[in-house]
């Protein structure tokens, strides 16, 4: 018989993530959301209580997990270092948010929202910025709401170093994310790849 697997306090939203199991132990995952549009991430109940990797913290969510292939792990969703100078966390894509596409810090309460109309967002661990080491962000957006040059429907760039992308993202609490937040930013990305920081757009040209 398995030991009980306590989960975070019940006052946030905590729901089963049906159809998704942890690749390490087969436990059904749950979604932890602090309410409204705040921090949201997935949790494996067993890993949360029994860290599966050396030096992994107890009470670890998927947003701190180094699993190499799980689509919900930090390894496959990390964008860049948190820009709060007092925090040593990372901004990680929210893989389950149904409304605004966003990134949440896996240590503090900082959240960063992507442009309205964003349909899909992803990172590639093999494509990093040569300016700060962050992972390149890939964005797909509704063509009618595209804020990118030439109304591009697809855009890729470093969220810290690419001026266009940097200027389109915002913190939930109203302050801008980027300019004046430490120059090029704390880029603690890891990986090997082509290495670029300037954005590239692709899509239909505007009038």
Can you give a write-up of this model?
- This protein has 207 residues and is mainly beta.
- The strands form three sheets. The chain has a five-stranded antiparallel beta sheet, with no helix packed on it. Strands 8-9-10-12 form a four-stranded antiparallel beta sheet, with no helix packed on it. The protein has a three-stranded antiparallel beta sheet with strand order 1-2-3.
- The longest helix has 5 residues.
- The C terminus is likely disordered.
Question: What is the strand and helix layout of this fold?
Answer:
Elements: E1 13-21, E2 28-33, E3 40-43, H1 45-49, E4 78-81, E5 90-93, E6 102-105, E7 111-113, E8 118-128, E9 135-141, E10 154-157, H2 163-166, E11 170-171, E12 200-202
Antiparallel strand pairs: 1-2, 2-3, 4-5, 5-6, 6-7, 7-11, 8-9, 9-10, 10-12
Described by strand count, sense and barrel closure, the largest sheet is:
5 strands, antiparallel
- Shape, please? globular
> Span between N and C termini?
65 Å
By DSSP, the count of extended strands is: 12
**How many separate helices?**
2
Q: Largest sheet, order of strands side by side?
A: 4-5-6-7-11
* Helix share, percent: under 10%
Strand content: 25-35%
Question: By helix and strand content, what is the structural category?
Answer: mainly beta
The average pLDDT score comes to: 79
In the predicted model, the low-confidence regions spanning at least 5 consecutive residues are 173-185, 187-198, 202-207
What value does the Rg take, in angstroms?
A: 17 Å
Summarize this structure as a short list of keywords or feature phrases:
207 residues, mainly beta, 5-stranded antiparallel β-sheet, 4-stranded antiparallel β-sheet, 2 helices, 12 strands, 4% helix
